[in-house]
């Protein structure tokens, strides 16, 4: 398999039509914040503000990103609780009895 140069891949992906620069900004911010990359998130916030995104719009995006991530965490926890009562189909481990 040929080694992919990340910067080239990133530039090519960002150059694709179909999304506005503003949409790309918010998608990138959502990904970096969700993945927990502080340096990338800080850079994206700075570039968003420099490109004219208002603090109000940025705050709205951050609130939505946080809410979506909280929903994912809650759904995983709920499923975990449901499965605690069942034997794991993958490994056959039975739940511990209190």
Give the CA-based shape.
elongated
The gyration radius over C-alpha positions equals 20 Å
Average pLDDT number: 84
Return the string of H and E elements: HHHH
N→C terminal distance? 50 Å
**Which structural class is indicated by helix and strand composition?**
mainly alpha
Main sheet characteristics: none
Q: Which architecture of the domain at 18-83 per CATH?
A: Up-down Bundle
Strand residues, percent = under 5%
Helicity range of the residues?
Answer: 55-70%
Tally of helical runs: 4
The CATH superfamily of the domain at 18-83 bears the name AhpD-like
Total strands:
0
Entry keywords:
98 residues; mainly alpha; AhpD-like
Any overview of this molecule?
With 98 residues, this protein is mostly helical. The chain has a domain at 18-83: AhpD-like. The chain has helices at 6-15, 21-35, 38-50, 55-83. Helix 2 crosses helix 4. The radius of gyration is 20 Å and the shape is elongated. 6% of the residues are buried.
